[in-house]
């Protein structure tokens, strides 16, 4: 079997267009554009690229982008004071603090300082709790993007066996919650899971989010399964001095067995920013007591 390639880049472009198409209605109702504030601390090269892309995508969708760049030496109190100012700013509907943060800053304390109504990353415990009990929540962008790709490919997910490899608060745990909500039978596997290959082999849906290059082998995949690869790992390329991106799944092997698979790059990655725009528009509507736009 050769798997169908799930084109996350194309799906993400469509979502971004749908968000952009819904912005004018919000503008008419509120007299302003939805606003997204992104805070970057330090000079991590990858984070700089992601923050620049977020700003560009926000503007392209007709929203207001507010960018704050803080030096790597900034204190936790200074960062939390900025978050408090953004919480109080009525023009700001979404707040995102780009991760990772420098070591002197406690990520949890910063996330806890964000108003849950503006937490477009969906990382605040209030949003994590709401998701866990099945209430309306702002949901982390990457797992929500994975779910959108799965539903687009498979339709109804109920009754399917899903394995999520990785138990991070940002991807693994919310992914499991979303799949439970879709009535999947969900196993969360991690570094201590015994016989991981056997666990994966039982799954109709495999979501790999461990951050270990090509750890999931083709022989672990059940024939016809749908494989969602969240990993973005930079490894040395065969050309000296160059690197290339690989996922957490050995793509060529897995594509021989799976029914459908996301590539890296061009699979899950582009969904993260598209869903961020979607969450910002949803948060903007909710803050004004407006119903969320349909089809997002
Ligand atoms: N506050 C947050 N910090 C971080 C998040 C997040 O969701 N919120 N996620 C990641 C980084 N990230 C967005 O911030 C992100 C990662 C990857 C991509 C993407 O489009 N990847 C491309 C490949 C890009 C490349 O060539 O390097 C792909 O997979 O096709 C977008 C956004 C950590 N921090």
Automatic annotation (TrEMBL):
| Domain Tetrahydrofolate dehydrogenase/cyclohydrolase NAD(P)-binding as annotated: residue spans | 140-286
Which annotated residues bind NADP(+)? 166-168, 232
Question: Record's superkingdom?
Answer: Bacteria
GO biological process, alphabetically ordered:
L-histidine biosynthetic process; methionine biosynthetic process; purine nucleotide biosynthetic process; tetrahydrofolate interconversion
- One protein family per Pfam: THF_DHG_CYH
Q: Which UniProt keywords apply?
A: Amino-acid biosynthesis, Histidine biosynthesis, Hydrolase, Methionine biosynthesis, Multifunctional enzyme, NADP, One-carbon metabolism, Oxidoreductase, Purine biosynthesis
Q: Which catalysed reactions does the entry list for this protein?
A: (6R)-5,10-methenyltetrahydrofolate + H2O = (6R)-10-formyltetrahydrofolate + H(+); (6R)-5,10-methylene-5,6,7,8-tetrahydrofolate + NADP(+) = (6R)-5,10-methenyltetrahydrofolate + NADPH
- Enzyme Commission numbers on file: 1.5.1.5, 3.5.4.9
**UniProt-listed SUPFAM superfamilies:** Aminoacid dehydrogenase-like, N-terminal domain, NAD(P)-binding Rossmann-fold domains
Quaternary structure, from the entry: Homodimer.
* Protein name stated in the entry: Bifunctional protein FolD
Q: Which organism is it from?
A: Sphingomonas cavernae
């Amino acid at each position: 079997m050769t798997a169908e390639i799930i084109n996350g880049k194309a799906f993400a472009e469509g979502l971004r267009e749908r968000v952009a198409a819904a912005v004018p209605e919000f503008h008419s109702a509120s007299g302003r554009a939805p606003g997204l504030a992104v805070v970057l601390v330090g000079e991590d090269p990858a984070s700089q690229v992601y923050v620049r892309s977020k700003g560009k995508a926000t503007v392209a969708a007709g929203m207001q982008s507010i960018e704050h760049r803080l030096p790597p030496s900034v204190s936790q109190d200074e960062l939390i004071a900025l978050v408090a100012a953004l919480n109080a700013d009525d023009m700001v509907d979404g707040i995102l603090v780009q991760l990772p943060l420098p070591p002197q800053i406690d990520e949890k304390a910063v996330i806890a300082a964000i108003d849950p109504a503006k937490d477009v990353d969906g990382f605040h415990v209030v949003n994590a709790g709401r998701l866990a009990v099945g209430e309306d929540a702002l949901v982390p962008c990457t797992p929500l993007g994975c779910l959108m790709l799965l539903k687009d490919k498979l339709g109804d997910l109920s009754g399917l066996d899903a394995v999520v490899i990785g138990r991070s608060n940002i991807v693994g745990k919310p992914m499991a919650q979303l799949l439970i909500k879709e009535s999947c039978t969900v196993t969360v596997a991690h570094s201590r899971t015994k016989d991981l290959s056997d666990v994966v082999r039982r799954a109709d849906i495999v979501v790999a989010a461990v951050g270990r290059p090509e750890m999931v082998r083709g022989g672990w995949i059940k024939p016809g399964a749908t494989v969602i690869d969240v990993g973005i790992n930079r490894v040395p390329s065969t050309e000296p001095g160059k690197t290339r991106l690989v996922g957490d799944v050995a793509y060529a092997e897995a594509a021989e067995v799976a029914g459908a698979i996301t590539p890296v790059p061009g699979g899950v990655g582009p969904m993260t920013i598209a869903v961020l725009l979607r969450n910002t528009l949803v948060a903007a509507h909710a803050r004004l007591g407006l119903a969320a736009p349909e089809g997002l």
